[in-house]
Amino acid sequence: MKDFDFDSAEARSPKAEARVADVGSGAGFPGIPIKLWAPNITLTLIESNHKKATFLREVVRSLTLTGIDIQNTRAEAITQTFDVVTLRAVEHFAEILPVAARLLAPTARLALLIGSSQLNDAHSALPALSWQNPIPVPESQSRLLLIGTLHQ
């Protein structure tokens, strides 16, 4: 699988075949905005809550989005791997990190939208990942984007 970089214009090209998973999608953020930005990706929204998964299906239908698979199950049940896995605002952060990392294909990226207080937890829970410097979220007091890359 080729390397995929969200900073690249290639993300919007017809050749972009990145497989992206959004763990604990909730209302579809950040998965659905990523899909709108890069429509050629294959997106899997993983949401165990039935009502939230039903909402996601309605959003996808209303926006006539294609290439989105909504999995109404726990992330632990997913056997597929992905090029990018996103995770934000989950209740049991330290427990879900290894589950999210298990979904990563070789050389994939894990993108975490976290509070600054969770930075050390992420680093210590997943020492096999190479972490980029955290990126502060604009207009936020403590939210960060943390990206880790899995190496073979």
Give a verbal description of the structure.
The protein has 152 residues and is α/β, with parallel strands linked by helices. The chain is 24% helix and 30% strand. It has helices at residues 31-37, 50-62, 93-102, 119-125; strands at 19-23, 42-46, 68-71, 82-88, 104-115, 129-131, 135-136, 143-150. The radius of gyration is 15 Å and the shape is globular.
Brief write-up:
The chain has 152 residues and is of the alpha/beta class.
Net shape: globular
CATH class: Alpha Beta
The span between the termini is 13 Å
Named at the architecture level, the CATH assignment is 3-Layer(aba) Sandwich
Based on the model shown, name its key terms:
152 residues, alpha/beta, Rossmann fold, eight-stranded mixed β-sheet, 4 helices, 24% helix, globular
Give the topology.
Blueprint: E1 19-23, H1 31-37, E2 42-46, H2 50-62, E3 68-71, E4 82-88, H3 93-102, E5 104-115, H4 119-125, E6 129-131, E7 135-136, E8 143-150
Parallel strand pairs: 1-2, 1-4, 2-3, 4-5
Antiparallel strand pairs: 5-8, 6-8, 7-8
